[in-house]
Amino acid sequence: MHIWVDADACPGPIKDILFRAAERLQIHMVLVANQMLRTPPSPWIRAVQVPGGFDVADNEIVARVSPGDLVITADIPLAAAVLEKGGHVLDPRGEPLTAGNIGERLSLRGFMDELRASGVNTGGPPPLSHADRQTFANALDHLLHEQNRLRSRR
Q1: Fewer beta carbons within 10 angstroms: which end of the chain, N or C?
Q2: Which run of H or E residues covers position 113?
Q3: Residue 154: what pLDDT?
Q4: Closest CA to 143 of 151, 131, 153
């Protein structure tokens, strides 16, 4: 299992949680972004810089993800593509994106895009709270331990 991070928009506190988890569980983690990122010195953590442009980092993640890998992203179309390839998706607020909820999320995203195109100010997400960070850490821990349990049964 690899952890792939859509790192251009991933909040710093979430990256810190991921760094600690990758080290603790010795899981390979790759941050993908169109800018150079600093990562802690670790054999488990690395960053990949891709050229700037629309969906370049997303396309890189989709090209590299394998079934069973985990992707951290708030990007709904990227999440849908990862799910189609058999990966797992967790958003930076700790919500798992699954085959059961991705259709609804894609529809909501399309609706919000239509509102913005018509001039409605839809705002953005609220700032990441301490509770959001805790929810993410708990969801990540649960997902990684569940995957580890499934692997050990094989």
Answers
A1: C
A2: helix 102-117
A3: 66
A4: 151
